Amino acid sequence: MIKTKNQLVAKIKEHNSLLSAAVMGLGVGLIITVIFTKIGVVLVLVALMIKSFGYPMSSTIPKLIKYRPVTCPFCRDISQVRINASEFTCDNCGNRLAVAENGKVRLYKHLKLAVDNSPTVFGKPVIKAPFNSGVEV
Ligand SMILES: [Zn+2]
Fold first, then answer.
1. Number of domains in the chain
2. Which of 16, 34, 125, 134 fits as disulfide partner to 118, beta carbons 3.0 to 4.6 Å?
């Protein structure tokens, strides 16, 4: 699930380059057939247009959604998290974190998630201890 701004920007760029590459491939393919060269040229131009929309789209679409900064207790990195998200994956270290209403990482649930996601040794979870998460237990 996409919960942070960086993840959304990355997703838009990924879809945009896939789409433009697909249209470009089709266009070049049609140019080679000689019969459909005109359609091919149009498709190549469309592909270039899609490509050029990638940057403005990836910078404007995330602005329509409200985010708030949440500090990861594992790596201290600040992710821009969707305002209504109750959990997210840290942009930097990839840990899944639960967020409380006040925008702070919820310690109990977050420890539980950390245990759920941690690797196990002989059936027991190996948990990385978080730094101070800013939440009193
Ligand atoms: Zn992190």
1. 2
2. 125
Q: Which residue, chain included where needed, has tokens 């403005």?
A: 56
- Number of C-alpha atoms within 13 angstroms, CB side, residue 112? 7
- Does 29 fall in a domain? yes
Please check whether residue 104 lies inside any domain of the structure: yes
Question: Do residues 59 and 89 both lie within one domain?
Answer: no
Helix then strand count (H, E) for the chain reads: 3, 6
Q: Is residue 77 part of a domain?
A: yes
H or E element that contains 78:
strand 78-82
Residues with beta carbon < 5 A to ion ligand 1? 72, 74-75, 77, 90, 92-93
Q: Report CA(17)–ligand 1 centroid distance (Å).
A: 28
